[in-house]
Design brief:
The protein is α+β, with helices and mostly antiparallel strands and 341 residues long. It has two domains: 183 residues, L-fuculose-1-phosphate Aldolase, CATH 3.40.225.10; 141 residues, no CATH class. The protein has 15 helices and eleven strands. The relative contact order is 0.14. The chain binds zinc ion. Zinc ion (ZN) binds next to loops.
Length: 341
């Protein structure tokens, strides 16, 4: 199928967004452009950061996608039978928004706000003058699309703050959409708490003779060296990609506990060894076989947690939502693809 000219611009915008850890982590986020009844949307599991190097967009039949949504069908109709990739699990969001260009990012300032209770008035003050709406958390895919459709039936926002999830913006062209992402993140910018660096020697000692190693990105250690962040992230899960790639919440080692103790406790509960662990005061460790997608997700959590105000009331994902995310076939497919990347 012939690709529209705007898609070339979208690839460039997507690559820029995808290379900014404050906006997109790993295979998260997705972008689209509509042209002649076709929705060109990022493929499931593909990385936006590679949008200018690889073909990561799939053509979807737009009227067919909207019909499928009305009928409660999650599978989106691909417009090109030769297409090998599957459209993003969030394709329906892109179909629903009337804008020609739609960008969805897991922007860390937006996620921090979208994970807090009782902040609607503050968000309204920051976003004054923009056409925006906040939608409550729903699992990505059909449930999220349904709540977005309900919002769009009442008004026509250009900016949607997705509860416990991220940011969705629509605009007439790529440049306006990209500018809007940055504008929202600028207005919602939260101060970052400073925290001590990780204790490399302590982490190395902890990991000796295990399948774990210190997290390679320094940001991750702040999850364990900042008592506030540590408290926030060990109490529950903030957003879906965290659960999919790292499991529910974060596990911290208690005093004197070894990695072997944790693995044994997990095995007794029929749980796999944790992907990552926090050593309070020392830093974060991860399994040695961890893939880039999961590593990026731990950095995302650190960037969100250090922006949560110390007195924030957090809206954690309910346990049944965590389970739904872990059991979800579409996510298994996405994770498998992204782990191979
Ligand atoms: Zn998302």
């Amino acid at each position: 199928m012939t690709q529209p000219a705007e898609l070339q611009l979208l690839k460039e915008v997507s690559a820029r967004l995808g290379c900014d850890m404050g906006l997109v982590q790993g295979a998260g986020g997705n972008t689209s452009v509509k042209e002649g009844g076709v929705l060109w949307v990022k493929a499931s599991g593909a990385w936006l950061s590679e949008a200018d190097k690889r073909d990561i967009f799939v053509p979807v039949d737009l009227p067919g996608a909207l019909r499928a949504l009305e009928q409660g069908i999650e599978k989106m109709p691909v417009a090109d039978p030769a297409a090998k990739l599957r459209p993003s699990i969030e394709t329906s969001l892109h179909a629903l928004l009337p804008h020609r260009v739609v960008l969805h990012v897991h922007a860390v300032n937006t996620i921090a706000w979208a994970s807090c209770l009782g902040v609607d008035q503050e968000i309204a003050t920051h976003l004054e003058g923009l056409a925006w709406a906040r939608v409550p958390y729903r699992r990505p895919g059909l449930p999220l699309s349904q709540v977005v459709a309900e919002t769009l039936a009442r008004r026509r926002p250009d900016v949607l703050i997705l509860g416990n999830h991220g940011l969705l913006v629509g605009a007439a062209d790529c440049a306006a959409a990209e500018a809007l992402v940055h504008e929202v993140e600028r207005r919602l910018r939260l101060p970052v708490r400073s925290a001590p660096a990780g204790n490399g020697a302590a982490l190395e000692a902890l990991c000796r003779d295990t399948d774990y190693r210190p997290a390679p990105d320094d940001a991750c250690h702040r999850l364990a060296t900042d008592p506030r962040s540590l408290a926030f992230v060990t109490k529950g899960s903030l957003y879906p990609d965290h659960v999919v790639f790292l499991g529910p919440a974060m596990r911290a080692l208690s005093a004197g506990e070894s990695i072997g103790n944790v693995i044994a406790a997990n095995a007794a509960a029929s749980l796999p060894p944790p992907v990552a662990l926090l050593a309070p005061g020392a830093g974060a460790i991860m399994r040695s076989d961890i893939q880039p997608g999961a590593e990026a997700m731990l950095v995302c959590l650190a960037l969100v947690a250090e922006r949560l105000p110390a007195d924030a009331r957090i809206s954690y994902l309910p346990a049944d939502e965590e389970l739904a995310l872990l059991d979800w076939d579409a996510e298994k497919y996405r994770k498998a693809l992204s782990l191979k990347a």
